[in-house]
Recover the amino acids of this structure.
């Protein structure tokens, strides 16, 4: 009987300890995902900012501005952004 009591006591202690880790990990994981690199399973580079931050408000305003813009103007703006960020126009990249 003492052996069964000891194993039950150990099992109870382990389950109580692990249940406490669940709440700690929940609170840590909500913020730690921002600091983990993409190659290690973190957020991709093009992920939108978190809600409630000033960057998120600016992101949503820009998104709404683009949504209200006519499609032809939107396509021209996207081409201008791609042209400025990519290689020089008229030069073929191999």
């Amino acid at each position: 009987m003492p052996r069964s009591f000891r194993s039950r006591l150990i099992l109870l202690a382990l389950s109580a300890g692990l249940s406490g880790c669940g709440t700690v990990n929940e609170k840590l994981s909500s913020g730690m995902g921002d600091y983990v690199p993409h190659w290690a399973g973190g957020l991709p580079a093009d992920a939108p900012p978190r809600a409630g931050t000033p960057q998120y408000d600016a992101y949503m305003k820009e998104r709404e501005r683009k949504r209200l813009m006519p499609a032809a103007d939107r396509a021209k703006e996207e081409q201008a952004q791609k042209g400025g960020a990519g290689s020089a126009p008229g030069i073929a990249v191999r």
